[in-house]
Design brief:
Length: 303
């Protein structure tokens, strides 16, 4: 028998009221609140630590109230510790295998485990959009560590993209000794005016451009390093096709998708302006809605 079919046909090894996929700010907040509200919950994360995209950021996060002086990495570590010390059930380095609707909720497999959960919450966030580029020792995809890991001292840098991250990374590159920085934006830069003003020494080129990774040229001009800042795109478990035309998951005011008892929260939904605080708040909102629904319908799955 095919190994995949054996997994699907194996006995249910765990019954849950709620299963959360993704351990970033939204997933951690949702799991913490569900746990404290007495819901039988499991948080599943593919990487070896919780914290999501904050783990990529070595920079002080000046936008989160109450965490002055902490880098994104430290914020991620605090999230991880909170989940551990609060005793929230969670699994690390665990990738989802299959997801199937059932009469009682959703059947989810990972490894040799097959779970039946009443409520399924997708909190898988986003990942940097690479466009046609591949990461290398001179091409960084997305902000944070990918860019920081590339030597920029006395080198000519091209930043591709016109958002906040493009201008932020240009500033960091210059602070690290970059010889020059050119930001290429196909349209008027979307970055906030205050962010653009923070990089007065960067050259900004607006209009169509052709970037060639093999030749390391943009419109024929040679560069030593590319920083690809094309924003982010939703990251979803394989086989879960619930995105809209923009590639994100649509949810209603409560955080539920068009499928009953299938929820999504945080940046995977593109629901609010994406940041750590809005993602965490969205996770809390979804947790409260699930708790209320379970309370109103006590005939639910119990371990």
């Amino acid at each position: 028998m095919d190994e995949h079919m054996e997994t699907l046909n194996s006995p249910i090894t765990k019954n849950l009221e709620a299963l959360i996929i993704g351990g970033g700010p939204a997933g951690c907040a949702c799991a913490l609140w569900l746990h404290k509200l007495g819901v039988e919950v499991l948080l599943v994360e593919a990487s070896d630590r919780l914290g999501g995209l904050q783990r990529r950021s070595p920079y002080e996060n000046l936008w989160i109230p109450g965490v002055t002086g902490r880098t994104g990495e430290q914020v991620a570590e605090a999230l991880h510790r909170h989940i551990v010390t609060a005793g929230v059930p969670h699994l690390l380095q665990t990738r989802i295998g299959t997801i199937r609707p059932s009469t009682e909720g959703y059947e989810v497999t990972f490894g040799t485990t097959r779970v039946l959960t009443k409520h399924l919450i997708v909190a898988t966030g986003t990942k940097p959009n690479a466009g046609p580029f591949l990461p290398s020792d001179c091409v960084a995809i997305g902000p944070g560590h990918p860019m920081e890991n590339i030597t920029v001292g006395n080198r000519k840098i091209a930043i591709l993209g016109g958002g906040d991250n493009a201008f932020d990374q240009a500033r960091f590159v210059l602070q690290r000794g970059g010889k020059s920085v050119t930001i290429f934006a196909r349209t008027t830069p979307r970055a906030q005016a205050v962010v653009q003003a923070s990089v007065p020494d960067a050259r900004v080129v607006i209009g169509p451009y052709q970037a060639d990774q093999d030749q390391m040229t943009v419109n024929g001009e040679g560069f030593d390093v590319f920083g690809v800042m094309y924003g982010f795109r939703a990251s979803l478990p394989e086989g879960l096709h619930i995105t809209n035309e923009n590639g994100y998951v649509d949810v209603n005011r409560q955080g539920e998708t068009s499928m009953p008892n299938l929820w999504a929260c945080g940046e995977v939904t593109d629901y609010w302006h994406p940041c750590v605080t809005t993602a965490a708040a969205h996770g809390v909102q979804v947790a409260k809605q699930i708790s209320l629904r379970l309370a109103a319908n006590p005939a639910t799955i119990r371990p």
